[in-house]
Task: structure prediction
Amino acid sequence: MDTLSNVRIAEKDSCCRLTPAAIPKAENKHAGVSVAYAPDPTKSWFVLRASYGRENLAADDMIGAGYYVYVPRHYQWKDVDGHPKRVLKNMIPNILFAYISAHDADILIRNADPAYPSPCPRLSPILS
Result:
């Protein structure tokens, strides 16, 4: 009996005693991509600038509208009233990344197409 379920005993002429039972390379270039995270050919990542440090507000509105948004953040220790406090800070001020189509990016920034109203109308003054 093997010690692990993904390990099998190698042949006797092999130099190694145990080898993994995993396939060494993928046969298909799309192997490992689930349906939920499959790339959409109509969408791409856009870098958006939010004015006056309102990137968190813009990200919350866009997530509420159903878009994929990423704001790079990290924890930083800050001295508050003589005590260290762990604070979540944005790594790049005023910048957020959105996985949307070019048309949706144009709608969110300019709110220009009257036939297709913006799902987040208050974002157009924030984003540029």
